[in-house]
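hey can u check if this looks right to u? its 345 residues, i copy pasted from the old doc so theres a chance i mangled smth
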Amino acid sequence: MIYLYLTRLLLNLPQFFLIWLSGKRQITTKGNRKLDPGFQFLLNHIGEVDPSKINLSLPASDIRDILFKAQDSMKALEAPLAKGVSYIDHQVTSEGELIRVREYTNNELSKNAPALIYFHGGGWVLFDIESHHTFTGFLCKTLEAKVFSVDYRLAPENPYPAALNDFDAVFDWLELNHADLGIDPQRISVGGDSAGGNLSACISIRRQAEGKRLPKAQLLIYPVTDLTFSSDSIEELAEGFFLTKEVMYWFRDKYLEAEESFKDPLISPLFAKDLSHQPPAVVVTAGFDVLRDEGAAYAKLLKSFDVETYYHEYQGYIHGFINMEMVKGVNDSIIKFCNDFKKIN
């Protein structure tokens, strides 16, 4: 515990000192992107919550237990929930299963507030709403919106399309209960990071195809958009930067049961033939992330169909940065892309 507090204190040191403590020169990748000194230091001190250190031969349930225990100790690095933000848990039924949905609210919100349904990252296999608790509370405060964070069913026990079906169930629940929840049914948006970003893009495509109400907007944070893994960044940054190519392949194998589905737009939205009339979007990527190029490509594809799209690449950041607010500049970066999201939400 003392070590974790010390890590937070060290992250406040000058950047040149953090690079020295990392034991390496500042790392540079293609496009002359320079790894942020805070992340360069943190990559050496992240410990058991680093996906690259997962023993992939273990059952997914065992890996979840290991990461849950590691998360518990890492909470010493987390900031408290944003001031004025409170939360309550609900139970929503999806395909006969009860799904936990955590509602974050801000005491300054009006009775007809915008809403964001948030799906956490973790490769459709790992993590939960607790792993993203501080971030979703920060989103609530920053977006001036209610945030509904979803403990959706995970693979491999619940492979595709279980998580998408949970997304639909929660969206429909919000619409049906909007008055009791104090939200505007016309302003229900979707968002998520990594696998959650993938699910947010896919549910927007599916709801349009099925003639259902579309989300007001999409917040796609380093989203998975191409499960063929054909982008340059997945090779360029295959290892050494928190999320690895090997782990992404493991996630895909747990999530999908058929290889021929890799190019299905409800799995890989980058292969959608027509994104006309999709909700406006904010797409966020990190410069040192295997998913960087496919996220950028999806933003470009949305724009090609005249979808209002705001794109942010944080060149010196790594995958997972939204949960690393202890690194200088991260909260400012989140506020920056949230300001764009408020324009479309």
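Residues 35 and 316 are 4 Å apart (CA to CA).
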